[in-house]
Amino acid sequence: MRPAVVGKAVALVVLAVLRVQACSPQPGREKPDSGPSAPSAPYLGNRGYTLPDSPFTRRGTVVTATCDMGARWASVSVRAWDPETWQQRAEREFPIPSDAAFSNVPGYKAVNSPLVELCGVDPNTPSPYGVSTSEYMAPRIRALFDLSFTRMAVVLRDPRSMKTSHVGYVVSGAALEDVVRLGGAAGDDEQNAVMSPDGRSVWFTYTASDGRQRIGSRSADGDHHLSDEGPATGHGLPLTVSGKPARAVQANMVHLAPNGRRLTATAPKVFGTVFDTWNSSGPLTRTSARGAALLSGCVGVVGWIGDDRVLCRTSSGVFRTMDARTGRAVGAPISVVGPQDGMVAEGMLVSADGKRFIVSVHLPNAQQNDGDYVYEDPDFRVVPTTPGGSTTHISNAFLDRRTAFLSWL
Predict the structure, then answer these.
(1) What's the burial of 261, exposed, middle or buried (CB within 10 Å: 0-12/13-18/19+)?
(2) Where does the signal peptide begin and end (predicted)?
């Protein structure tokens, strides 16, 4: 071959290689347009999961949970609602075994679990996590279930040892004795049990043999061996598991953005409210919070109303849309109650389309009358996320002060 032809061929090969390199993602960086369906893109939310068709997974459904207790039984009722008529579409029952930690009483090992909050008999009973406003409680209780609401994680106490707790789960509609106990040995200290999005594993915090606090998981099926998932900061903060593959965040008020790239969260001594998602499990700390955005004046995150905007309850008692990048308020405030009403409004849930949210309007504190505490059912309302829209009241006998609003698809 002549030298000129050889030189031209080499140039074409080099140009082709450069084009391939230019189109390939660089090491350590994520393609900007990679979606949750890309199997190599970690922790981009839960849209990559295929869910079975049911009233609990269809668009336009609100899902709630209530703990019901009798003299010798306890269960959790999960209901699917039509948010236009507030008629019930479906209901599932999760039996609670007698050795499950659904309350903390003297003489038994104190356990941190969102189930303890959901099943609190007395609304005046302190939350195991300290703060028990709706904005804090709703995401914690939601984490007990998989995305399809078919399995619920539980913490089980060993009745023979007051110092042992391990994890398991119950299946909706199963018999009381069909609770799945995921192993555990004498001396185990497993708490904060929550389900993975696909329901295939239970995640929790535990104390390792060397005394360190860790995050672990156990497969719900087959071999239930312990998998260590990363560091934990004790049992005082709850877990939320999301993404594909699943990762755990240990923090409060965890809400994943629709595109899965950021989340809201709070933790003691951590500055910020909105954080980038990360590829490993662990607690929200000053290190993992680098580059966080602080939502100015936000005291309670209600949820995301888009990939870049968050709805907050502010310190002045109104609701504001916040820019998740700058932390500044966008648009006019949304006032649900006025100072003359003597009531407070807590945000509970934002619809998937970001156009509406549910609030609970109630007295600021329990009122005491002749030594007895009087608790009134809250006034639930659906409020537009833009000022000036029409507010509607929710009316159904099953929706009372014991109700936790978990999702609005």
Answers:
(1) middle
(2) 1-22
Rounded to whole angstroms, how far apart are CA atoms 29 and 198? 27
Q: Supply the DSSP symbol for 376.
A: P
Q: Which residue has the tokens 């998981």?
A: 217
Do residues 359 and 318 touch, judged by C-beta distance below 8 A?
no
Q: Count the domains in the chain.
A: 1
Please state whether the predicted TM-score (pTM) of the whole model is above 0.70.
yes
What tens digit of pLDDT does each residue of 283-327 get?
999 888 888 999 999 999 999 999 999 999 999 999 999 999 999
Query: Cβ–Cβ contacts within 10 Å for residue 329, how many?
Result: 18
Distance between CA 144 and CA 154 in Å, rounded? Answer: 8
For residue 15, being part of any structural domain is answered with: no
CB atoms inside a 10 Å sphere around CB 226: 21
Q: Is residue 25 part of a domain?
A: no
Residue 216: inside a domain, yes or no? Answer: yes
In the DSSP assignment, the letter for residue 177 is G
Q: What is the DSSP annotation of 192-213?
A: EEEE-TTSSEEEEEEE-TTS-E
Strand 151-157 relative to strand 165-171, pairing: antiparallel
Tell me the residue range of the domain where 254 lies: 40-408
pLDDT of 140 higher than 80? yes
